[in-house]
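Help needed: design a sequence for this.
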């Protein structure tokens, strides 16, 4: 019994397939949440809508760069900077460059944090790799 439990390995280390499944699940889930949030916004001026799209696309692109390129440290720093700039642009102290829909920025921040944590998590050998 103990031998079988030891074969499971560390449950906090992701195999390559688990890593890919996790990243795909995060992207699908949070992409849908952002889509719903944007679909629920009321009429806003076209200038504000374009600024909103540019900022959101920059954050989403930064999240994807962290998980799909080999420059994960640099892209994590860039993602942090883009998120901080977005939070600053919305803050009252800066004169609020843009007013984000209520839940968009927190959603993007949680998505980014989970993507970075997944990217920097330990990896394990895929036990099924020998069977392929």
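Sure. Designed sequence:
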């Amino acid at each position: 019994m103990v031998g079988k439990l030891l074969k499971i390995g560390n449950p906090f280390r992701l195999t390559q397939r688990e890593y890919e499944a996790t990243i795909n699940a995060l992207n699908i889930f949070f992409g849908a949440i952002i889509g719903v949030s944007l679909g629920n916004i009321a009429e806003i001026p076209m200038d504000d809508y374009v600024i909103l799209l540019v900022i959101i696309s920059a954050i989403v692109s930064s999240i994807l760069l962290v998980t799909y390129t080999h420059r994960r440290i640099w892209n994590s720093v860039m993602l942090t900077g883009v998120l901080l700039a977005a939070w600053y642009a919305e803050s009252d102290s800066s004169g609020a460059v843009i007013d984000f829909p209520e839940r968009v920025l927190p959603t993007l921040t949680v998505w980014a944090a989970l993507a970075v944590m997944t990217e920097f998590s330990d990896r394990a050998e895929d036990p099924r790799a020998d069977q392929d």
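The two ends are 27 Å apart (CA to CA).
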